[in-house]
């Protein structure tokens, strides 16, 4: 792994996951190699000794008190899984999860160490435990090609090395997209200030893609832009499009070409424009770099300040009790101006519009490693390193986890307040309490709120169905499905002459049906919650029930409270869909035709049947009396989420009509699915009242298939 090692003459071909894992381990190894080496006579029961390929002995013990303990341990796990005899013990899925965890910690440590190095000396002097950090040498700093810098000798010595990888918290973004080879049809030639067709270029061009939002500010008029003759460019009130040649000349990148939608996607509703809209995955995934242009943000001072705070927490240099918060207690600039006080209103915290655009959701999911630039094209950096957006997300998550653990250790109720997840509806009380405590700096509170509100806290592990749910909560002026189809790889419907009506006023019917096929059974497994206003009973008139109860998106409908949806954005193992789900068909009103279903248990089972333990999430439930309600019952976890005998629950949960536990998937021996209830006794029309999950097995179930038998039911699920 070092320059002294003789590499094989024949090339070794690695898949993208292996390649990224190799370079993370290489970076880790060259940093720790010298400090880990020990002589063979130092062996003791307290030391874990390993003989490496270089014929030397190394001790891999980590001191939990040191700044790099978390990073070291995660990388050591990956090292043992990839390169030692222990690798045979890991399944492909387990190895992938280790790689993901290692990427997050590598990103956090890389960014935090750079931030610490760049801290003012007077701030370092105030910290609890200032120290030297083992990260990267000055020669490595020069290897970043952003802003405009030349390649360093490191890259010549190690071909294939991409320095930005160490700060990228995502192994491979959107791995479900099978093929992203290709190029945009048009690019902006920076040197000549004009739009060119890529097929006319002599060599494959390197280009930087720009993510930004402008549609909400369109004036309805279009103008001719110098260097672009093929179409007129729509005007907006955010920036003068006639100045685009000058604006694009300021993009801080070393690539000779830029992709910018207004000058690279025909704005004339032509077939070429439609083709380019459908190829957003190719355009963004193939870009050498991607930057987001926050054209309403003027300064990074506040974000830089909170980065220093989070870095000190992550590196265990300071705690929230010892860090001088006066150095970090300022807004990030990612929100419009608002009153930060104990009377704070979450709705008054309006984030930059980029965070609410549906088009930018697609772009950040395709390239979570994009760099951030303010309106003057100044990149957000720490110690001259550009910070990828997913690295910021990873560091916020790691910092929050550390602070929550510390608060729990000190029996501090602030810890609960820091959890402002979207699944908790009583956010106003929590947010005001957090501000009133003044334990954490404003910048951290803003970042936690922003990432929770937008769903970006899970960016590093985001899944297809979660993107679809987030998409239903974002702004899109028109043609919502077009703005998200490329990242989901759901594009077949786009060529149909009629894509059908909008399902739940969100997406065209044919788009939804194709998405259900592409995503698979997990499409139907979202959690739901609905406020209960009908005291003491769940059995409702059909007119009172919302539609789309098993779809992964929803919108409020007139006169009928809509379900609030939540998706578990993680995987416990390889999920195997029950074959019956292939027969389910989404209808235009949001209901689902269910010809066949795999019924695990139901109200009709015999009373003496064996018990079946399961964890359930109930969408409809009776709220507690007002005197005992601590939080809004809409997401009252202890009551909605509990362990039950599933068979007994089906027989006793409002038994006026039948209840069914219907399997959707199996994973590691665990059956997972829907809790359905008849609208009326004996009715073939049902609605979802919850979800269930039976325990996993410790046996080797790598070859197990879904075993719950399917039967003909001919149901319609609202």
TrEMBL record:
> What InterPro entries does its record include?
HET, HetReg/Transcr_Mod
Q: Which Pfam families match?
A: HET
Tell me which residues make up the Heterokaryon incompatibility domain: 207-363
For this protein, the record's PANTHER family field holds: ANKYRIN REPEAT DOMAIN-CONTAINING PROTEIN 39 HOMOLOG-RELATED (PTHR24148), HETEROKARYON INCOMPATIBILITY DOMAIN-CONTAINING PROTEIN (PTHR24148:SF64)
Protein name as it appears in the record:
Heterokaryon incompatibility domain-containing protein
């Amino acid at each position: 792994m070092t320059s002294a090692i003789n590499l094989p003459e024949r090339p070794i071909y690695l898949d993208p996951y292996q390649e990224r894992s190799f370079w993370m381990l290489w970076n880790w190894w060259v940093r720790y190699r010298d400090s880990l080496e020990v002589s063979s006579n130092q062996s003791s029961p307290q030391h874990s000794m390993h003989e490496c390929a270089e014929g030397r002995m190394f001790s891999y013990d980590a001191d939990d008190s040191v700044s790099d303990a978390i990073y070291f341990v995660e990388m050591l796990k990956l090292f043992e899984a990839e390169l030692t005899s222990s690798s045979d013990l890991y399944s492909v899925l387990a190895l992938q999860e280790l790689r993901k965890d290692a990427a997050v910690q590598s990103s956090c440590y890389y960014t935090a160490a750079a931030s610490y190095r760049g801290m003012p000396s007077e701030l370092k002097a105030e910290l609890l435990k200032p120290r030297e950090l083992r990260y990267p040498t000055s020669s490595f700093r020069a290897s970043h090609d952003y802003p405009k810098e030349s390649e360093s000798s490191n890259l010549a010595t190690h071909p294939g090395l991409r320095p930005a990888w160490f700060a990228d918290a995502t192994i491979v973004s959107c791995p479900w997209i099978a093929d992203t080879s290709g190029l945009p049809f048009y690019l902006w030639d920076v040197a000549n200030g004009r739009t060119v067709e890529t097929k006319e270029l002599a060599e494959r061009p390197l280009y930087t893609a720009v993510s930004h939002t402008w549609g909400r500010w369109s004036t309805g008029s279009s103008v001719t832009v110098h260097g672009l003759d093929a179409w007129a460019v729509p005007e907006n009130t955010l920036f003068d499009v006639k100045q685009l040649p000058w604006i694009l000349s300021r993009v801080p990148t070393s690539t000779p070409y830029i992709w910018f939608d207004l000058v690279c996607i025909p704005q004339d509703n032509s077939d070429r424009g439609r083709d380019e809209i459908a190829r957003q995955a190719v355009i963004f995934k193939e870009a050498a770099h991607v930057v987001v242009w926050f054209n309403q943000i003027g300064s990074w001072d506040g974000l830089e300040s909170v980065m220093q705070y989070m870095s000190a927490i992550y590196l265990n240099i300071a705690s929230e009790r010892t860090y001088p918060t006066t150095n970090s207690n300022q807004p990030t600039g990612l929100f419009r101006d608002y009153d930060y006080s104990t009377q704070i209103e979450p709705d008054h915290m309006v984030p930059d519009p980029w965070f609410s655009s549906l088009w930018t959701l697609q772009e950040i999911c395709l390239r979570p490693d994009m760099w951030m630039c303010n309106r003057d094209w100044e990149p957000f950096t720490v110690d001259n390193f550009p910070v990828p957006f997913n690295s910021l997300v990873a560091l916020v998550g790691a910092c929050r986890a550390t602070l929550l653990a510390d608060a729990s250790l000190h029996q501090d109720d602030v810890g609960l307040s820091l959890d402002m997840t979207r699944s908790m509806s009583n956010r106003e009380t929590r947010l005001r309490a957090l501000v009133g405590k003044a334990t954490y700096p404003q910048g951290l509170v803003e970042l936690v709120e922003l990432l929770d509100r937008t769903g970006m806290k899970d960016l590093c592990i985001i899944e297809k169905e979660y993107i679809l749910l987030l998409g239903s909560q974002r702004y899109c002026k028109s043609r919502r499905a077009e703005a998200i189809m490329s990242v989901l790889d759901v594009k077949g419907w786009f060529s149909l002459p009629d894509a059908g009506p909008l399902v739940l006023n969100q997406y065209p019917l044919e788009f939804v049906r194709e998405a259900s096929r592409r995503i698979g059974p997990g499409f139907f497994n979202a959690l739901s919650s609905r406020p209960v206003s009908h005291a003491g009973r769940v059995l409702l008139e059909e007119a009172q029930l919302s539609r789309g109860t098993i779809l992964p998106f929803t919108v409020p409908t007139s006169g009928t409270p809509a379900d609030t949806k939540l998706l578990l954005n993680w995987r416990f193992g390889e999920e195997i869909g029950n074959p019956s789900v292939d027969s389910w068909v989404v209808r235009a009103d949001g209901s689902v035709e269910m010809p066949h279903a795999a019924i695990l248990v139901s109200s009709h089972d015999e009373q003496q049947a064996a018990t079946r333990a399961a964890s359930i999430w109930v969408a409809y439930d009776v709220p507690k009396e007002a005197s005992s309600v601590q939080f809004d019952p809409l997401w009252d976890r202890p009551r909605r989420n509990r362990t039950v005998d599933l068979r007994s629950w089906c027989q006793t949960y409002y038994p006026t009509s039948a209840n069914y536990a219907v399997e959707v998937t199996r994973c590691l021996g665990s059956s997972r699915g829907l809790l359905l209830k008849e609208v009326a006794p004996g009715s073939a029309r049902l609605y979802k009242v919850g979800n269930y999950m039976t325990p996993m097995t410790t046996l080797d179930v790598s070859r197990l298939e879904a075993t719950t038998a399917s039967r003909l039911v001919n149901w319609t699920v609202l």
